[in-house]
Specification:
By secondary structure, this protein is of the alpha/beta class. It contains 25 helices and 15 strands. α5 crosses α6. The longest helix has 23 residues. The C terminus is likely disordered.
Length: 644
């Protein structure tokens, strides 16, 4: 019996070596470039191979550690993968926010994030927290103008509600470095803001021992289009800045580390996001152990994850539910301590009870039906995930050290090093979205052409903050970090078309003149429908025309401002030339395009009257923006202002 237990399964199949795998792959590639076809170069700056094997794990020493063991890659927990289902409530009115919170806790949430910008007295907090069981639910607070004053209000408010403040779990979103990044200045000054960190930490240690006083908002980096490497490194640099300042001020390293919460944005790069959370724990442990006196507990970090804003869309917004589902899964599998799933409609309006319920239930389902809370670090041992984790660790640590050499996080922000490094990636990502190399479903690919969003978008309120208003007048002292969504430029494109229609104009028509080879005309008509659909144009497709004359007659009758010839490269010499000449002879204001790029006859087609060509290598955003200018949908100075 013992011998059978030691036997490997499927011993009748011979082992396949890496050399054999490689030989077979190269044979199947038939001479194609291995690196270009199969090796993925990430935005993070490292390459991902097409497959990994057990031999790729031999150099990873941390694999021997169990969950709950240093360096904590596998998380802090040992028996389960429990996390807080956190619902953040942006409503600042304390009465309304309280009603939402009580309802959320009754329906699956186990933690609440409160916007406390309007809390100025103990009575406000009593109203906000009435009916909220603070003994069971964690309380997280953000948007306070003064965190020390707020903390001093919280303790008597909890006492008035019959709750021992020392038993309540939660956190404060105190992070002056993030304020500096977002607004290009400190709230008061570097000295005053950092001094508040010490004052808040001392108060929390005495009165709210289960609270995190400082939150490192790594999600801001994420929502500025930063890579996972940048988000990890710069979050670590921020933490190091606080730890160094506070320990120099006399605080114990272990006390400081117990008061910090790391917050990450989680995007749709599924495995990379799992690896990011695991890498964060390793990096935190390695950083903290450099401080004398750090215990094992100090090397454990609390991680909160919130679903990405950067990849969310206004159009086809229900796709956001799919995005946040995979993001919440990444966070849970990666071992997050708490997770916020943002409502699917957050990009264009205040979330309502329906969208909040959907967001909350996504996490409930991941626990109650998918059982992701039962197994600690289910990704452990995955050749792919472990190698991603190791790559993130290596590259993030190198960037962390490079930032420290510049004087630490605050000095790196003042010199714009952080902003410029992220901006480089933002430009690259934006270009890939504009070229549709990166797809945003429903926005730059496969749009719902019947959807209209112009009348559904609610205007965002400006920050009601005197400090920010003053900065607007004199300008920020340092370069702010630019947060945006990847879909914004394409959404602006389509909203411009909707505005044009709302002003009393008819929707611009694009006539697809399909002719010739059946397979090619259908394929190129499909491409063209998708291409012009992202701008909200009215696409007129056709089953196909027998002659160019027939197609031109139908095109002119449609009153379309754009005609796209859809055929095969071989047939464009005949059909493309004929169509362009006939249309331009009747109305030279009609834009004539060819779907494809038959390079041998491009000049001939242009001479015949073809204005341009649409194909996979075209910068879709730029092309459609220029076309809108030609059609009178937008004005040049407005477009240039947007570009700036």
């Amino acid at each position: 019996m013992d011998q059978k237990k030691d036997e490997k399964l499927f011993t009748e199949f011979p082992a396949v070596t890496t050399a054999q795998w490689e030989a077979k792959i190269r044979e199947d590639l038939k001479g194609a470039d291995y690196e270009k076809r199969l090796v993925w170069k990430t935005y993070e700056g490292f390459k991902v191979k097409p497959y990994y094997r057990a031999e790729d794990l031999t150099s990873l020493s941390y694999l021997k550690a169990n969950p709950g063991e240093y360096p904590y890659v596998r998380g802090n927990q040992t028996k389960c993968n429990e996390w807080e289902i956190r619902q953040d409530i942006d409503e600042a009115d304390v009465v309304k926010a309280n009603a939402i919170a009580v309802n959320a806790l009754e329906r699956g949430a186990t933690a609440i994030g409160f916007n406390v910008e309007k809390v100025v007295a103990v009575k406000d907090l009593i109203t906000l927290l009435k009916g909220v069981d603070a003994k069971k639910a964690a309380l997280h607070f953000y948007s306070s103008p003064n965190w020390v004053e707020f903390a001093r209000l919280l303790v008597p408010a909890l006492k008035a509600l019959g709750v021992d403040a020392k038993s309540v779990n939660g956190s404060f979103d105190f992070d002056p470095i993030s304020y500096l990044l977002l607004y290009g200045d400190f709230y008061y000054s570097q000295e005053v803001d950092m001094a508040q960190a010490a004052e808040l930490l001392a108060f929390v240690a005495d009165e709210l021992p289960k609270f995190k006083a400082i939150t490192i908002n790594g999600d801001f980096f994420h929502n500025a289009a930063a890579t996972s490497v940048q988000e990890l490194a710069f979050s670590l640099n921020s933490a190091a800045e606080y730890i160094t300042f506070l320990t120099d001020a006399g605080f114990d390293i272990n006390e400081v580390c117990s008061r910090i919460n790391l917050c990450f944005g989680i995007g749709s790069n599924y495995f990379m996001e799992i690896a990011k959370i695991r890498a964060a724990r390793y990096l935190w442990a390695k950083m903290v152990e450099q401080f004398p006196g750090a215990t094992d507990e100090a090397k454990k970090i609390y991680i909160h994850c919130t679903t990405s804003i950067w990849n969310k869309t206004i159009y086809d917004s229900h796709v956001n539910i799919l995005r946040t589902t995979t993001e919440a899964m990444s966070a849970a599998i990666g071992g997050a301590d708490s997770i916020t799933v943002l409502p699917f409609d957050v990009t264009y309006k205040e979330s309502d009870e329906f969208s909040q319920r959907i967001a909350r239930n996504q996490q409930v389902i991941l626990k109650e039906e998918v059982y992701l809370d039962k197994i600690v670090d289910p990704a452990a041992g995955s050749y792919y995930v472990e190698n991603l984790t190791d790559s993130l660790i290596t590259h993030a640590w190198n960037l962390f050290l490079a930032t420290e050499e510049k004087g630490g996080m605050i000095e790196a922000v003042k010199s714009a090093f952080v902003q410029e490094e992220i901006a480089k990636v933002a430009v690259e990502k934006s270009k890939d979205i504009a070229n549709r190399k990166v797809s945003i479903l429903g926005t730059n690919q496969y749009p719902n052409t019947k959807e209209s969003m112009l009348d559904k978008i609610e205007e965002e309120e400006d920050y009601d903050d005197e400090k920010v208003e003053d900065e607007d007048e004199k300008g920020p002292s340092f370069e702010p970090l630019f947060l945006f969504r990847g879909a914004e430029d394409f959404e602006d494109l389509r909203l411009a078309t909707e505005t044009y229609i709302a002003d009393g104009n008819s929707c611009p028509k694009v006539f697809l003149l399909t002719i010739g080879d059946l397979a090619m005309r259908k394929a190129r008509a499909g491409f063209s429908t998708n291409f012009f659909g992202v701008a909200g144009f009215d696409i007129i497709d056709n089953p196909g025309f027998k002659t160019a004359e027939e197609g031109v007659k139908a095109a002119l009758a449609s009153a379309a401002k754009v005609v796209v010839v859809c055929s095969s490269d071989e047939e464009y010499a005949e059909y493309g030339t004929a169509v362009a000449k006939m249309i331009k002879n009747v109305n030279d204001q009609i834009v004539v395009l060819v779907a494809g790029y038959p390079k041998e006859i491009v000049e001939n087609l242009k001479e015949a009257g073809v204005d341009d060509f649409i194909h996979v290598r075209v910068n879709t955003l730029e092309f459609l923006s220029d076309l809108q200018l030609v059609l009178g949908i937008t004005e040049e100075d407005e477009y240039e202002e947007d570009e700036d």
